[in-house]
Amino acid sequence: MTETFIHETSVVDTGAQIGSGSKIWHFCHVMGTVEMGNNCILGQNVFVGNNVKLGNNVKVQNNVSVYEGVVCEDDVFLGPSMVFTNVVNPRSFIERKNEYKKTLVKKGATIGANATILCGLTLGKYCFIGAGAVVTKDVKAFALMKGVPAKQQGWVSRSGAVLSDDLVCPETGERYKLEGGILELVTEKLR
């Protein structure tokens, strides 16, 4: 097993479960009920709130707060300064901690720098949220989302390459099929 690294300026509260090989860099705070898988990386100035679950190989870039209610499956990438929310209608003078909405980020999804994800949504496996996008609705697997509010602009492969009409990944040769608005992987890597 690979050792876990926690920088001396970071705080990991008692009870947090940190997987083997994970690295927690400068000025992070991980709350006590966090479950973090193996080989995760938390960049500088990351906050991970209570009851958050991060799967294996999750990469959280600098200046990200992963608030209570968020679950990230394996191989998720959270870009620099992207934002999660966890309450639909926050007010400073009304406590709504019992109203946190669950946000599920499925396996292999990427969220670009400065994107915002409203709470209560599901981001499909291997979807790609462009930098600065504001996601207000559930996202399909393999969907490429851009804009404010985010709209689907195409499809991406597991490797993150934009797919053309033939639905073949230009990087790996993987083939996909589109049926009823759902994209699925048909063949594994050919190259």
Automatic annotation (TrEMBL):
InterPro entries: Hexapep, Trans_hexapeptide_repeat, Trimer_LpxA-like_sf. The keyword Transferase applies. It comes from the Bacteria. Keywords: Transferase. One of its GO terms (molecular function) is transferase activity. Belongs to the transferase hexapeptide repeat family. This is N-acetyltransferase. It comes from Maribellus comscasis. The lineage of its organism: Bacteria, Pseudomonadati, Bacteroidota, Bacteroidia, Marinilabiliales.
